[in-house]
Structures are given as C-alpha cells and as structure tokens.
Amino acid sequence: MHQIVAAQRAFFNSNATKPVAFRIEQLEKLRVMLIDNEAALLEAIRLDYGKQQFEMFLTELLLVHDEIQVALDKVEQWSAPRDVTPSPLTSPGRSYVMAEPLGVSLVIGPWNYPYQLSLAPAVAAIASGCTVVLKPSELTAHCSALMARLIAETFDPQFFAVVEGGVPETTDLLEQRFDFIFFTGSVPVGRVVYQAAAKHLTPVVLELGGKSPTIVTAGCDLTIAAKRIVWAKFLNAGQTCIAPDYAYVHRSVYEDFLAALAAEIQTADYALANGNYVQIVNARNAQRVASLIDVTKVVVGGDHDVEARLIAPTIMRDVSWDHPSMREEIFGPVLPTMPYDELDEVISAIKAHDKPLSLYLFTDDPATKAKVLAEISFGGGCINDAVMHITNSELPFGGVGASGIGSYHAEAGFRAFSHFKSIVDRELVADPDTKYAPYTPDKLAILRQVAGVE
Ligand code: NAD
Fold first, then answer.
1. Atom 11, ligand 1: which residue's CA is nearest?
2. What CA–CA distance (Å, rounded) separates 2 from 5?
C-alpha cells in the first residue's frame, strides 16, 4: 500500500496530472476501456448478483459515460481561474480563484452499484487532476477483479491503481496519508473512514445511507405515484442507497394506494427468469432483509429463498417506528408503509430521526411542496418521482448529517477533489502609504472611511 501511494505521490509531484490535456486523455482512455469491455463488464455483474442488461446499462454504465462526457465537455471551463471583484484593500490588482487538484486520492466503493459508485468518483478525480487509488467492494468479486485488470491494462498505476480486498486491506490503505478520501458505503464504516482521515487531516466526501422517506399525499394520481415508487424501490432489488425506504401515505388514500402498488408490481412482472429482477448480493444480506418481513403485515409478496438470494417485491402495511423494518436501513425489496393524518406528524417523525439521504414527495399542491422542502433537511430528492435526481449530473449528489458529507457529480465532483486557491496578483508599482507604518490618526480615518465604519 505504502509503495503504491508513494509512487502516486511522486507522480503527482511531477505535475504530470496538472495539464487539462492530460486529464482529457485519461478520461478518453476510461471511456474507450468501458466501451471495448462492455460485454465483460455486464457479465461480471451478472455473475455477482444476477443483474440483467437493462438495469445494468441504465444504472451502471450510462451514468458513468454521462459523467465522462460532461467532464470532457467542461473540464477546461471548471479548471479556468475565476476572477472575483477586488476589494478596496486589494485594488489595484487582480483577485482570482484557481482550482488545483488535492493530490493523491483514495476512492472506496460499495457493492450495490459496483461500477457506477467506484468509477463516477474516479472520473471526478481524473477531471480534477488527482491520482486515484480505487478500492472496490470485495462483495462483488467478479466486478472488482475485472476493474482491477482493466484499469491495470489501461492506466499507469502511478496515476490510477486498484487495490482489491476487504476490511484488512482497506484498513491498511486508510493508514496511508492521502490528500483526499472519497467513501461510499454504510454509516458505521463511514465513521471508521472519517476517524482514519482525521489522523492525517485528510478531507473527505462520505456518501452514506439511511432511511429515505416517501410521502404520498391525498389528491395525487395514485397510479402514477405507485408506478414510479415501485420502479424506484425494486430497481436493483431495493439495493439502492436512495431507494424509497418506507412510505407514509395519507389515510384517506391508504387502501387505494396499497391496491395501486399491488397492481403495479403485477404489471412490472418482477422475476429473475425474465430478466426483470436482481438477486440479493449475498446470503447474509438475503437473511437480514428476509428477517425484516413480518407476515402479519404483508399485503404483497413476502416470499423469499435465502439460499437462492431471492426476495419477492414485498409491501407491508400499518408498520410503526418500533417495527424492526423501521429501525435500520432496509436495503432490499421490502417497503413498509404507514398511514398518516396530518403532514405535521410526518414532518416531526422524519425530523426525529437522522437526516435522510433522499426524500420523495408525491403531491400536486404547491404549499405542501414548499412546506416539506423548507422544513425537512435531506440530501436530495424528487417531487412526484423517486431516485431520478441521481440521473441529472448537473445536480450535486450527496447526503447531509448522518447520510453524508459533501457531494459529487459533474462540477460538484470536480470541486470535491480540488482545492480552490485564492490569489491577489498586483503590479510592483508604488501604492498609497495608507497601510504602511508609521500609523497615524489620518491613516486610521481613511481606513474607517474605506471600511464604511466612520
Ligand atoms: P460498507 O460500508 O459495508 O462497505 C463499503 C466499503 O467499505 C467496501 O469497499 C468495504 O470493503 C469497505 N469496508 C467495509 N468495512 C470496513 C471497515 N471496517 N474498515 C474499512 N473499510 C471497510 O457498505 P456496502 O455494504 O458496500 O454498501 C451499502 C451501504 O452503502 C448502504 O448503507 C448504502 O446506503 C450505502 N450507500 C450509499 C451510497 C451513496 O451514494 N450515498 C451509495 C451506495 C451505497
């Protein structure tokens, strides 16, 4: 680990990554690598957890290609020094902000979107001019091994290297001094990473998880709401950090909404056999998610086969906050639902828990939209949709509070891996004596006048 980081530091210090042309060349290489090896990449995910083509392309490769394209189009503009208005004390002279890469970066990825959540941060690192050590998740071993091989074949390890492994390897890596750490994963491991980073005062982005609420109000189109919620929830069999974790539904439409969910699940025809569904990543997680299913509350689904790592799309009704499914992030295809009477009670309940990564609100009422957005803090989300905010790279993606620190995608990603150096640039010509000693009452009066504090 030490040698990899030392080699990357030497390479970074050679300034080789700084020219925008170098970064563009590396982004192009990554794009070609993904295009040339698409079949192998898709096959590796299928081997890891039965994910099929449509979802794989949409949620893994498309989003990474989009990040690459936006970075290729904009990296020059993002990197350009940005002039700001000089203050009275810095005039005459130029004041500007200059982006510089932070240096040697570590990207730690989770298993649930093994390419997207490892490579999209890597795109941001490359665009900003950082070197990258990528540690993908050991749980998706085929994807991890393939990324390691392809990246080793495509890039100089002094610039972009993959370290495979689990907790021991990541622990060793975290002992090294990095200039930036980008972590995606669970809240408990996020704490481990943050503590390790603190030893070296290394800045971090932490993309964490938690329970993302969905609120379905009275008076919205229940069929469309159910269609969008079902799609977002059962995408990747619920193994999505921003999946709707649970749903609060207005009591007046509760029964109708449950019926709409059931109808939509039937229409979507989720089944591994027809390529419409995904396995749970491993037996441990399948067991954990299956144990959250409460047969007394199931209205749709509930079937599971832990050995085959399959859990049917499941809806539970009349769940309360003390139910096991409400005490942890579900991260699987189980949707607990709860009826509510007043929006204020929903807002209070959400605010009594950790700030969510995402929130989804289904309503046509402008006042309800304004109230929820103003009163609840959450990472990002959608009104009348779910999950889709991640697909617009112009929107910074990240959590707040326990759901994460910092954000990325497109320019936000570039900014995360960059330091913004503030510069005052002046001519070497004589300037007024005002600021120089000896200090006199007249000089103080001028200073007060300039500051507007007379
Ligand atoms: P995880 O925290 O178990 O693992 C993430 C990474 O950390 C892996 O590479 C793993 O090898 C490493 N790791 C695990 N334990 C470690 C330890 N003790 N010390 C050092 N490194 C360790 O998370 P996961 O199971 O891969 O992913 C699921 C979690 O990630 C969920 O909570 C989900 O919400 C969250 N997530 C968040 C986002 C986001 O963008 N905010 C995206 C996907 C997943």
1. 166
2. 5
Neighbouring C-beta atoms of residue 421, cutoff 10 Å:
11
CA 129, CA 64: separation in Å to the nearest integer? 18
Q: Which of 67, 107, 112 to mutate to test the pocket of ligand 1 (most atoms within 8 A of CB)?
A: 112
Instruction: Return the closest-CA partner of residue 58 out of 74, 45, 71.
Output: 45
Q: Is the Cβ–Cβ distance between 190 and 401 less than 8 Å?
A: no
Q: What is the pLDDT of residue 271?
A: 84
Q: What is the arithmetic mean of pLDDT over 239-255? A: 98
Which of 183, 189, 181, 144 lies closest to 164, judged by CA?
A: 144
The answer to whether the CB of 398 falls within 8 A of the CB of 408 is yes
Q: Rounded to the nearest whole angstrom, what is the distance from the C-alpha of residue 55 to the centroid of ligand 1?
A: 21
Residue nearest to atom 31 of ligand 1 (CA): 186
Region 2-6: mean pLDDT is 97
| Distance linking the first and last C-alpha atoms of the chain | 59
Q: Distance between CA atoms of 246 and 211, rounded to whole angstroms?
A: 7
- Strand 131-135 with 104-108, pairing: parallel
pTM of the model: 0.96
Residue percentage of the chain with pLDDT more than 90: 93
Check residue 272 and give its pLDDT: 77
Report the pocket of ligand 1 as residue ranges, CB < 6 Å: 108-112, 117, 135, 137-138, 166-167, 170-171, 184-186, 189, 192, 207-209, 241, 329, 331, 357, 399, 404
Cα(382)–Cα(394) distance, rounded to whole angstroms? Answer: 14
DSSP string across 29-72: HHHHHHHHTHHHHHHHHHHHH---HHHHIIIIIIHHHHHHHHHH
Helix (H, G, I), strand (E, B) or coil at 150: helix
Ligand 1 pocket, mutate which of 241, 387, 395 (most atoms under 8 A from CB): 241
| Cα-only R_g, the chain | 25
Residue 438 has pLDDT above 80, yes or no: yes
For the chain, domains (ranges, CATH) are 2-208+404-420 (3.40.605.10), 213-398 (3.40.309.10)
Angle at which helices 20-36 and 116-128 pack, to 10 degrees? 160
- Which residue is it, tokens 């490359």? 126
Average pLDDT over residues 407-431: 96
Query: What is the pairing mode between strands 104-108 and 180-184?
Result: parallel
Assigned token pair, 48: 């890891």
Q: Ligand 1, residue 379: give the atom nearest the CA.
A: 41
Map residue 138 onto helix, strand or coil. coil
How far CA 21 is from CA of 10, 153, 159, in Å, comes to 20, 21, 15
| Nearest CA, atom 9, ligand 1 | 137
